[in-house]
Write a structure and sequence with these properties.
Blueprint: H1 2-14, H2 27-31, E1 58-63, H3 69-80, E2 84-86, H4 87-95, H5 100-110, H6 117-134, E3 139-142, H7 148-157, E4 162-167, H8 170-178, E5 180-183, E6 189-191, E7 195-197, E8 206-208, E9 221-222, H9 229-251, E10 256-260, H10 265-275
Parallel strand pairs: 1-3, 1-4, 2-3, 4-10
Antiparallel strand pairs: 5-6, 5-9, 7-8
Helix pairs in contact: 1-7, 4-6
Pfam families: ADK (PF00406)
EC number: 2.7.4.3
Protein name: adenylate kinase
Length: 289
Amino acid sequence: MSAISRAIRACASRRNLSVQAPAAAAAGAGLAGRRAAAGRDGRDRRGGEEKKDGRRVQWVFLGCPGVGKGTYASRLSQLLDVPHIATGDLVRLALASPGPLADQLTEIVNNGKLVSDEIIINLLSKRLEEGEEKGELGFILDGFPRTIRQAEILEGVTDLDLVINLKLREEALLAKCIGRRTCSQCGGNFNVASIDIEGENGGPRMYMPPLLPPPECESKLISRADDTEEVVKERLRVYHDLSEPVEEFYRARGKLLEFNLPGGIPESWPKLLQALNIEDPDNKRSAAA
């Protein structure tokens, strides 16, 4: 991993990113050279054939805040037996740790801004360094890259297999984000929004039922400080401004798969597996949310 570490530091430096060692020193190390066949049995579940070079998948999930990147990336991570690395989770862990970085991130997040490349790369570096110590292979990145500069750095140190761009209608995104809740006691994630939207151009209605908590969690639900309509709209605006170049970057390389979510998890999960040509013969994850 040290070789990739040096590579991403060099790439970041060439793009004038103020990446600090030793945290950034592991970033490239975790991003390139983690190539082995998908699945615990060493077989590529996209086609059922073992990859000739013994690689595990190296995938990225793109999509607006609240679209469900974490949900689907996590399910695929379990199915393919590769780590799911979500930069949003890394940011939230940093927010929960006292210090100047937490104060800086609180101001950024509460105002609906995107966290800087420098901070994201440093957080990702630390996570990859920890993964190396555990012997992790392959990855599904969620929330990185979010800017063209990040995409260029990633391109310089690894060869991604696939970039999955999840899409959802904006009115559904707003409702999903505003409806998010977390149990302050058990940490479970829920959503109180019931989304029922007319289909576009005569298409089918979009229905996404709420994901309600069990009775013991009902009185302990809290919402994120940044899950207000004003902040969510600002996050979406900023995301769209930055996402188009990133999408085009991967589209031009023939690596972008655009997937329009047709509804909630029960409807979308099997269709996503079909789009990826993945089978789950053990049926370990039911489609139910």
